Amino acid sequence: MNEYIVRTNSTEETLQFSKELAQKLQPGDVITLEGDLGAGKTTFTKGLAVGLDINKNVSSPTFTIIKEYNGRLPLYHMDVYRLEDSDEDLGFDEYFEGQGVTVVEWAHLIEDQLPEELLQIKISHGEENSRNLTITPKGKRYEMLCKELFA
Ligand code: ATP
Ligand code: MG
């Protein structure tokens, strides 16, 4: 399986990378974000929002589970960390199959409800402000996207 590793050395570098990724996104794309508390999942999402021409500040949707923003494409930002029951179906499919881009923080908690094809991004802490982003495309669409992005 293909896997790409991006190392960022600051918050700004992570924002810059996700902003670039956003340029390649299409309606219906799904990105899952994994990583410990404070790894940078929401930071990554903020960069995506900037790249999608969303001029609202993206904040953590922890208490609402899903927040929606309007830009070049709609952005559906989910954080399922506090979902009480991971089998609970909040109609996720409608987002995954919708006309926007869906980003899911703590996606493994709803593993069974995720689509088969998605772009998986795992963020791990390095020293101080460095982070390793391990990017795994699942499915043809995302393999193509990564090929373009990392060409
Ligand atoms: P949570 O699990 O609580 O939702 P999170 O993974 O969403 O956490 P963020 O809310 O994005 O994490 O917080 C990451 C913090 O780490 C921010 O304060 C950010 O500025 C800082 N940071 C430092 N270096 C980096 C980096 N290279 N990439 C991303 N964030 C970084
Ligand atoms: Mg977060």
TrEMBL record:
It comes from the Bacteria. It is found in: Cytoplasm. InterPro entries: P-loop_NTPase (IPR027417), T6A_TsaE (IPR003442). Keywords: ATP-binding, Cytoplasm, Magnesium, Metal-binding, Nucleotide-binding, tRNA processing. Gene3D superfamilies: P-loop containing nucleotide triphosphate hydrolases (3.40.50.300). Belongs to the TsaE family. This is tRNA threonylcarbamoyladenosine biosynthesis protein TsaE. The lineage of its organism: Bacteria, Bacillati, Bacillota, Bacilli, Bacillales.
